[in-house]
Amino acid sequence: MIRIGIFFFAAITGVYGVLVLLPINLRNGISNATPGGSTDFNVLGIAAVPAASSMLWAHAVSVYVFSLSLCWLLMNSYRRYLPLRYAYLAVPQPARYSCVMVNLPPTVIDDTSLYKLANSLYPGQVHSVCLFTKTGKVLSAFEERQALVQKLKGLRATNEKRFHVSRIRAQQDFSGGLRGTCRWLFFNCCARTRYLFGVGPPVRQVSGIETPRMRRSSTRDSGAHEAVNVPSSTRMVDDETVRAQTFVPWWNFFSPRRDAVEYFEGKLQKLDRKLLYLRAVGTSRLPAAVWSRFKSTSAGNDALLALSPRWDATNATGAAARVGTPMPVRGNAASTARSMVS
């Protein structure tokens, strides 16, 4: 809207000046010209029009139109600028009234003690404080925990798959004969070979359990099926033992084997306790520097000039700044501090 208004303003004033004002000035300038007394500028300007001429009304109209148009453009610009200004002021600007405090006393160990110290130095001016922390140990432990969780998910999925396959193989009908014998030998050899390479436990017989199986009847013409009790010796797999195992530690192949899921679940519990300890104790805190936020720019500026030892070289005594001891700042240091605050 403003761009369109500026375009129309320039177009109207330009056309009015060329078609109305310029001919009036030129006509009066030529008619009232004196030899050697008039120049081109006087002929084209308003000075060529006599004071009592009736043509001055055109200039008065142009002045009013020009002034009203400028006022309208300024009003639109102000209405457009005002919401932007309010939106900018509504966003917090902590950098404008915050500073870093250093050389803290050893009594400052948490946010509460730091807030009490800053509020005692600047009563009613401190908005909030924040201690700097190192999160390297916490992040490394968290990443290790995430990798362990993914590994546990994969192991549980593998155990479920092995459990399903073992049940299918255990429910197969070993009715004897050459086919049943070959199947029994193949299954036992594969299972024991997997155990030797650390994939799964050995297959053991399950005794004392009778599993009903469906076997085709000996009557050839009937084609019916009858339920029989297959001996427990034909069940080659125990569903409870088909689980992934691991060496503890994993690089020692002569170490005892343990259940992989139970082992990694124990490691996960240790990592959780470690994370809770790191968060509770807070040994990764940096006690040498804190971030203090003030309620006003002037309070932040005063604190920056008084507490920061960055400009110790400008001090007359050269002593290091202490918390609660104002430090005089002169010359370029003061301007640098104000520029950093603002």
Describe it for me?
With 342 residues, the protein is mostly helical. The protein has 3 domains: 2-90; 95-134 and 284-341, Alpha-Beta Plaits, CATH 3.30.70; 142-245, no CATH class. Helix content is 52%, strand content 12%. It is built from 9 helices and 7 strands. The chain has helices spanning 2-31, 40-44, 56-90, 111-121, 136-170, 177-196, 260-281, 297-307, 332-341, and strands at 98-102, 126-133, 211-216, 225-230, 245-247, 257-259, 285-294. It has a 3-stranded antiparallel β-sheet. It has a two-stranded antiparallel ribbon with strand order 3-4. A hairpin with an 8-residue loop joins strand 3 (211-216) and strand 4. The longest helix is centred in the first third of the chain and has 35 residues, at 56-90.
Provide the descriptors you would attach to this structure in a database record.
mainly alpha, Alpha-Beta Plaits, three-stranded antiparallel beta sheet, two-stranded antiparallel ribbon, 9 helices, disordered C terminus
- Tally of individual helices: 9
User: Any idea what the shape is?
Assistant: elongated
How many angstroms does the end-to-end distance come to? 34 Å
> What gyration radius follows from the Cα positions, in whole Å?
46 Å
- Largest beta sheet: strand ordering: 1-7-2
Write down how many β-strands occur, each being a DSSP E stretch of 2 or more residues: 7
- Secondary-structure element order, as H and E? HHHEHEHHEEEEHEHH
Helix-strand category: mainly alpha
Number of domains: 3
